[in-house]
User: Which sequence fits this backbone?
């Protein structure tokens, strides 16, 4: 082909490729859907910005683990309140129901029952009937279903039919058999009541360890994916174990499940359980987003970093002792500003013996409740007394998998005022649960940058 013919062919191809295009051959970028940030339910937007982290006055306790340091954090959303018993029960019930549905589907599969058979067949895997599958679903079913240790990985549960918990309405003996396995044996029951075997309420999830993947460039993607299995039911015995020679049986018996305490902060959860809750909240929201065609997936819910927690607790106030400013724990009317132990042995001087409802007292200037007192809060950080000396000044975070001492912040109903200070640091072990430790979650803000200085 001579040069003239080549140039002519190139020109024709160029004209044809631009025919029908609106970019006129210019570099205009790939156009996606217009992004409209949506504030997650129950959360407040915390504008990014810089603040002085650490002790702004004398370290009266002499711990010397929080020297002042100017750091900057990006914008994020944070729960306005601590996660409540009601909210955590939603997680527990979801895990319980998912396990029950899986057991029902497996048994239906083993005995050859399908939806048309009624009874347990109504809870069979959705792929028991392949007639209504899309092309993609059929492909995935034929090529990937069962490629795992149980042989049931990838199979979809039927969540369109409600579970039956009233024993008088169980549909058949197979259903009864499955439900029987979820309760404690009769010999472990009393007063004629059978209770759930909460040890079976286990949540499984996977995540990618991005920090490890970034440090080890030779690591395969598969090896960077971590799997966890966590028992999710709170440890209600903490009300007994945390206080020797003390009568707290009513809190043990009623606090988590009774509706009287639904709006109180959940306690008795470990750091690992709090992390599992964050993963579930992300999965739960994104499952809903998938059901709405065209809806964007949401960012991950997670525990706040230590810097994020302190920045949010300060509510925009620089060098303040408490979320409301300070340096006093009483208002000008003589009312306590938080739920804590103001007098030795007198837990009720602030009008609260144990915890109070999550939306109690006045919020700080970011509209966050109980960032001091009520319950201490897990954060996504490991305790290192010298951490402030070596952390970055932008979005500082120290979370070492080998260090099981995890930071708790904010002080609680059983703590003295020192631990309510926004700069005070404390820790507990990741697998420990306490009657005075809860948590709240955060989510990264996406879209236009929002900063305190820019508002």
Assistant:
């Amino acid at each position: 082909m001579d040069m003239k013919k080549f140039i002519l062919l190139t020109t024709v191809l160029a004209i044809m490729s631009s025919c029908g295009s609106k970019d006129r051959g210019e570099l205009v970028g790939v156009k996606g859907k217009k992004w409209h940030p949506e504030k997650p339910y129950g959360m407040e937007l915390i504008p990014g910005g810089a603040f002085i982290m650490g002790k702004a006055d004398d370290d009266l306790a002499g711990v010397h683990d929080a020297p002042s340091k100017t750091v900057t954090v990006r914008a994020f959303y944070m729960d306005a309140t601590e996660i409540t018993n009601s909210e955590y029960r939603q997680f527990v019930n979801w895990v319980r129901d998912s396990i029950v549905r899986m057991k029902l589907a497996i048994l239906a599969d083993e005995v050859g029952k399908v939806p048309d058979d009624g009874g347990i067949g109504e809870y069979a895997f959705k792929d028991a009937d392949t007639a209504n599958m899309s092309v993609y679903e059929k492909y995935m079913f034929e090529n990937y279903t069962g490629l795992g240790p149980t042989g049931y990985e990838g199979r979809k549960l039927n969540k369109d039919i409600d579970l039956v918990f009233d024993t008088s309405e169980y549909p058949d003996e197979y259903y009864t058999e499955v439900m029987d396995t979820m309760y404690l044996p009769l010999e472990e029951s009393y007063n004629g009541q059978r209770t759930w075997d909460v040890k079976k309420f286990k949540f499984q999830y996977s995540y990618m360890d991005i920090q490890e993947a970034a440090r080890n460039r030779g690591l395969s993607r598969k090896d960077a994916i971590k799997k966890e299995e966590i028992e999710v039911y709170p440890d209600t015995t903490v009300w007994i174990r945390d206080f020797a020679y003390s009568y707290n049986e009513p809190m043990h018996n009623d606090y988590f499940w009774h509706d009287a305490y639904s709006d109180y902060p959940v306690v008795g959860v470990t750091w690992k359980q709090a992390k599992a809750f964050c993963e579930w909240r992300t999965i739960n929201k994104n499952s809903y987003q998938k059901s709405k065609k065209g809806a964007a997936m949401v960012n991950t819910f997670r525990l706040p970093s230590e810097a994020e927690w302190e920045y949010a607790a300060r509510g925009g106030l620089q060098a303040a002792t408490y979320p409301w400013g300070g340096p006093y724990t009483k208002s000008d009317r003589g009312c306590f500003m938080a739920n804590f132990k103001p007098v030795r042995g007198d837990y009720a001087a602030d009008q609260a013996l144990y915890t109070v409802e999550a939306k109690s007292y006045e919020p700080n200037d970011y509209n966050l409740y109980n960032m001091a007192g009520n319950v201490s809060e897990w954060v996504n950080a490991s305790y290192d007394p010298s951490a402030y000396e070596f952390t970055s000044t932008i979005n500082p975070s120290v979370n070492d998998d080998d260090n099981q001492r995890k930071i708790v912040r904010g002080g609680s109903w059983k703590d003295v005022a020192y631990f309510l200070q926004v700069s005070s640091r404390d820790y507990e072990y990741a697998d420990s649960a306490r009657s005075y430790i809860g948590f709240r979650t955060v989510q990264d803000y996406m879209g236009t940058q929002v900063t305190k200085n820019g508002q």
